[in-house]
User: Fold this.
Amino acid sequence: MDRILEVRPDDLLAVVEPGILNADLNDALAAEGVWWAPDPASRSISTVGGNIATGAGGLLCAKYGVVRDAVLALDVVLADGRMLHLGHRSVKGVTGLDLTSLFIGSEGVLGVVVGATLKLRRLVPGTVHTIAATFPDVRAAAAASSAVTAAGLQPSIMELMDATCLAAARRLLGLDPGTDDALLTIQTDGAASAAEADAIAEVLRTAGGAVEVSGDPDEGERLLALRRAMHPAMESLGTTLIEDVSVPRSRLAEMFDEIARVEREHGVTIPTVAHAGDGNLHPNFIFDGPEVPAPIWDAADDLFRAALRLGGTLTGEHGIGVLKRRWLADELGQDQWDLQRQIKAVFDPHGILNPGKVFAP
Amino acid sequence: MDRILEVRPDDLLAVVEPGILNADLNDALAAEGVWWAPDPASRSISTVGGNIATGAGGLLCAKYGVVRDAVLALDVVLADGRMLHLGHRSVKGVTGLDLTSLFIGSEGVLGVVVGATLKLRRLVPGTVHTIAATFPDVRAAAAASSAVTAAGLQPSIMELMDATCLAAARRLLGLDPGTDDALLTIQTDGAASAAEADAIAEVLRTAGGAVEVSGDPDEGERLLALRRAMHPAMESLGTTLIEDVSVPRSRLAEMFDEIARVEREHGVTIPTVAHAGDGNLHPNFIFDGPEVPAPIWDAADDLFRAALRLGGTLTGEHGIGVLKRRWLADELGQDQWDLQRQIKAVFDPHGILNPGKVFAP
Assistant:
């Protein structure tokens, strides 16, 4: 693996080139008993450099953190060709301003990442337990997931599918599409996996769920099948704009209420899956044809503003790019937006790096 | 507690004013079953705002992270009086540049923190186990601490005292000062505390340590007494300049070799305690009188450069302030130093915030 320059299990770090794929890195690290925690759904096709540039998240974030929590140091090339080394190989380090963190999620507007020193975790043995629980409606499922977090339980994965998602996934798998129910798919890992799974199942039953639990890998895959069918199921409904709002975990049920309101008021269908453990929702706006029609953007606008009202953000893990530039100042405020532009200008005074991205011209 | 504006155990967050003392905050949070992990040794007299401004660390960092890992959002006032809200209440959020992280550890040169949304952890029940292990010399103790980390064990606290520290602490407590031995004081916490303590004790015995373990609180305090006597013991030796280098964990034994070399070559005494779990060392330069004499700074200079050679940093958790300004460019490189000054100028064009701090005039 020639893009992995160094692996130090004793220091829990690896030095890599940015072009290595996330999944390839973790395959190689497994042999050393360590792993890099960020797990975007795209991990088999996305690079570590891309994960850093977007500040990527994934399914495991509530328990294992996001990219920001998993990078020690970066080598970057600035717009004028100068190369800088940012950060430390040590766990701690507070010399000057934290430019490593500033680069994480900066979407290529400050410089180009050409090397990364990653903070690893040790692989912990234990049987993964999988839980699937259906609820009469999405609000009940969202409330149940909040109850799991509030009970002090920490699943590795906690995914929520609303009724439209669930029906589409069932149809794709040749199953009865069901009623208006919603699904929580949960996994626990580590040494206490079985006890945690039992405790979570109890919380879910108390919250009105129909619950299945298994520590058997094949049975676990069966329980995961509907969640895994999510993206192809969305494609079966039409063209999809996958959105990415995030709210405090306790507001998840209210955010689903807002999505239902936006569906009603704008006459659009927005099947939604959520990383319920961390409050990150992916509403899927469904439409026909290759271009996003204007009414879909109106509905998205309404939905973004609802997330902001609930104390959330218009992007949990996908970033701003081009599509969300026009909402950035709504979240940041004009003063902070101006300040961020000025910081970009310090790194890239002629605006040659990713022009037009993040900050609208 | 009128400086705590909001506590949300369900969202694992608290909103506070920066003037609240770290220990007072954690006393209040305990009633809600949650805590804020950063635990600088100064926690009974240091404010959360100060902890954020310095990017503080502490004893628990290897297991529970530093301040950078424990802040979701900040309210800041800029030099021109404008107020900004940075960050999110949600776990995830990637809107624009991560100015929250940029403010953490910025030592007051970018703006004034007037509010903070903190990321909390849930208090986990379990008996704390304490381990004390003496080794024939500091190199053996450092190697043993690296072996604990390399074995995949994660103590909550792992403190290392060298021979001079240990002898001074023993004298202060009226004990025999001993030979040239060194001490590791370790704690485990959480549900698996007892099993982890046993596993760590086994690693330490294999590494040549004389080991005591206890799950009894009074006995634990007895085992901690020497470590707790550390700072008064240093004061009994003379005036102390407490330094703060950090190295990758695997280089800890080499860093102790370098400290012994600096002691020999400069004719100074540098008793050293280390947060061995994260590679952060506090060498104590001992001298007479109120001012740091020039030869002590020469020795410190030699020691800082040794830490940098080992892939470390000249400050793990204390920051740059005034005393370390002249070494900052040595670690950052001139290009990065210039760039950091330019970023400061974006926030504070007239240089009125903490003038002369961090960046030498």
Notes: Residues 270 and 285 of chain B are 5 Å apart (CA to CA). Chain B has a mean pLDDT of 95.
